[in-house]
Design brief:
87 residues; mainly beta; 5-stranded antiparallel β-sheet; OB fold (Dihydrolipoamide Acetyltransferase, E2P)
C-alpha cells in the first residue's frame, strides 16, 4: 500500500484466539487485525481508537490492519471525540 494512515475503532479483539477487527468510522469498512500487530500495542481492547495502515493478507488476499498505534483508550471518550473531530 501507499503508506496511507487511517483511524478506526477496535470492534473486538480476542487475545486467546489472537485476532480481532477494526472499523473505519468514515465508511464502516472492517479490517482484520492479527496477534502479531495487536501485541505491539499495549492495552489494546474493544472501543479503543487506533491509527493503522493497510496491507494485503498473504493468506486471504484481503486488506488487513498493520502498524497499529493507539490514539485513545475506550475509557477516555473525551479524547476519542477530539481525535475524530480533528478529521
Amino acid at each position: 500500500m501507499s503508506g496511507e494512515r487511517f483511524r478506526g475503532v477496535v470492534l473486538f479483539y480476542d487475545r486467546d484466539k489472537g485476532y480481532g477487527f477494526l472499523r473505519r468510522p468514515t465508511d464502516g469498512i472492517k479490517f482484520f487485525v492479527g496477534r502479531a500487530e495487536a501485541d505491539r500495542v499495549a492495552d489494546f481492547s474493544t472501543g479503543d481508537l487506533v491509527e493503522f495502515s493497510l496491507a494485503p493478507d498473504g493468506r486471504t488476499g484481503k486488506l488487513k490492519a498493520v502498524d497499529l498505534r493507539l490514539l485513545a483508550q475506550a475509557r477516555d471518550r473525551s479524547a476519542a471525540s477530539r481525535v475524530f473531530s480533528a478529521d
